[in-house]
Amino acid sequence: MNFLDISLIKSLIGIAIVIATDIIFEFFIFKKIRNHKKRARAKVTLRYVLFVTIIVILAKIWVEGFGHILAFIGFISAALTIAQKENILNLTGWLIISLRNSFGEGDFVQIGHHQGFVKILGLFYFTLEEVDPKWGYRKTGKLVKLPNSIITLQPVVTFNHEDFIFHEETVIIPFSISYAHVRQVMATIELGLKEYLITIEKTYNTEEKRLYDKLLKREKVSNPSLDIKFEQGEVKGYKLCIQFYSLIKDKKNISSYIRNTLLETIQASEQPLLI
Predict the structure, then answer these.
(1) Strand partners, 110
(2) How many C-alpha atoms does 224 have within 13 Å on its Cβ side?
(3) For residue 224, is the peptide bond before it cis, meaning its omega torsion is within 30 degrees of 0?
(4) DSSP state of 234
(5) Residue 244 dihedral angles phi and psi, to the nearest 5°
(6) Ramachandran region, residue 136 (left: φ > 0; alpha: ψ -120 to 50; beta: rest)
(7) What transmembrane ranges does the database entry give (predicted)?
(8) Cβ(211)–Cβ(164) below 8 Å
């Protein structure tokens, strides 16, 4: 057999091994990952790794001497480092994001003073749909394009739509309103909010319900949790703290419900309600 025949056979064997690896992971490994988004990320990461692997295998088979490849790669890398430093850093950032599953499209990300939902994740840049946390993480309509290299320079806070996040709403009620009235407001809010959260819970899919039950069991808390503190700053009064866990998509509606219920419950009082 000549060099061409041997190289073809080796190439086919290498490709077959890579395909077999992908099939094994698809049917025996990925099926164990319940989270759909994490499973999709794992598949993408594996296929990038397999793609690079098959390129290296084919290069080793068809190029005389693997040492020449390393020398060639070293030469190209040196040239690119000088001419395309930013792109290399961005590509490195993309590899970190992909291999470590830092975040993916649809996830909420906060990097520095930028925060929003990842709309596009590319090789060199990712795009955020900017949100305003003061308005229940409502999208502002602005798109923010950031280089992937930013994740190596600044801390990243991220969570996806399937994560339950801790939230706290606070309201200061003036001391001029009786403590008994404040307790009544608190009881009304707690009862109504529990019923409202139960209504939302009924909309969860199987995976969300499992994660929600696991969270409450792990944290050993009730949802919601209410407490009264005393505010002695510039604005003095009873500080009503309302804490709850929810999906980020439900946070805006829950906050609106709390505020509306507060206003309706305390409307008999002429004292201002500071939120």
Answers:
(1) 115, 157
(2) 28
(3) yes
(4) S
(5) -160, 160
(6) left
(7) 12-30, 42-59
(8) yes
